[in-house]
Amino acid sequence: MADTDTGSFKIEEEMNSRRRFLIAATTVAGGIASAAVATPFLLSMMPSERAKAAGAPVEVDISKLEPGILLMVEWRGKVVWILKRTSEMLATLKVLEPELADPDSEREQQPDYAKNETRSIVPEILVVEGLCTHLGCSPVYRSEIAPADLGSDWIGGFFCPCHGSKFDYAGRVYKSVPAPTNLFVPPHVYLSDTRLLIGSESKETA
Ligand code: FES
Fold it and tell me: What residues flank ligand 1, with Cβ below 6 Å?
């Protein structure tokens, strides 16, 4: 994975530039409590050592996830993002379609439940791998409107600082950027309205 540290540094910069406060509680499958970190915009959660060793699915409690907050979960050594999108974020998806390379998620890497307007099972909840499909950097969550570095057309999404790829709030890649495909949607399933299992499409494995 190239330049992941660079991406992480950029995320840190983004975090430091924000002052929104949040608290959310998360747990990991297997009953071992994980640390939920109060940070602006971003939460991270580490799976238990047992789950990591087994490459096991990771269970996430999203009951306290606030709109606009990005939760980061580790699954099989990869970062998975869970974003609870606001109505304003969802409204940008249709607007941006002409700018996107694969707006209907027709390419083969995407599960059937990502082939809809929001690329998700539950419209408000985005679940994608936080790895750029170009060379694997970590894109940065950029929710500002028209920031100086991204231009007046920017209405929010994810920006990869390594080579400039852009993705919308559904993880769909813009046209004419280095990244060839939309962000990957990992296998996942809802165990209930507020409990999500990352890494499996079967409730039986929970
Ligand atoms: S790794 Fe993201 S644009 Fe190259």
Answer: 132, 134-137, 160, 162-165, 178-179
